[in-house]
Amino acid sequence: MKFLYSFNDKLQNFGAYLSSFLFLALVVLIMSEIILRSFFNVSTMIAGEYSGYFYLASVFFGLGYTFKEDGHIRITILTSKLSPPKRRAVDIFAGTITLLLITFIFYRTILMVKESYDFDMVSETVSETPIYLTQLALPIGLLIFCIAILTFILKRIKGDQ
After folding, report:
1. What distance in Å separates the CA atoms of residue 47 and residue 28, rounded to the nearest whole number?
2. Where are the alpha helices (DSSP H) in the chain?
3. Of 136, 132, 115, 112, which Cα lies nearest the Cα of 123?
4. Is residue 12 a contact partner of residue 72, using CB atoms and an 8 Å limit?
5. Which of 82, 118, 139, 155 is the most exposed place for a label (fewest CB within 10 A)?
6. Residues 67, 74: Cα–Cα separation, whole Å
7. Distance between CA 1 and CA 22 in Å, rounded?
8. What angle do CA 76, 78, 83 make, to 5 degrees?
9. 132 closest CA partner among 109, 105, 106, 114
């Protein structure tokens, strides 16, 4: 079990670093576009499109880390009044429901990426970026999130937290 906990920590940290890197790349891209337009009257032609891709990927890669660090919104008004064993049971139940929901969404995003790949879909901009490449962040980020939720459930079952 310690291997899973250690793997989860490393995976969630990797997702957070990747998310941070993409967010910095987004800032650099936007700043470059501003400087190019202001001083040289030139445009990258892709800044708007790619900043959206970077932002989306940044959000999805950071989901697991945010969950691990208790950064997602939780309604604790009821659970704060419960005894620790009951709170643990509620956490296990809520975690299981969440895992089922996110697993379903993960599955649907895989189908979406596959469809984009099968139909050779590209963006309708100058870059003509293959859409499946930009969509890959969704299932990867959701898989990282699923592992974080599974680890949360197992910790609660074992009573490690």
Report:
1. 10
2. 2-40, 47-68, 84-118, 131-135, 137-158
3. 132
4. no
5. 118
6. 10
7. 31
8. 100
9. 114
Q: For the chain, how many structural domains are there in total?
A: 1
Range of the domain at 128: 2-158
- Name residue 137's amino acid: A
d(CA 115, CA 66): 29
Distance CA 148, CA 8 (A): 6
DSSP state letter for 125? S
| Residue whose pair of structure tokens reads 């996110």 in the numeric block | 102
Distance of alpha carbon 4 from its chain centroid, rounded?
Answer: 19
| C-beta of residue 84 within 8 angstroms of C-beta of residue 34 | no
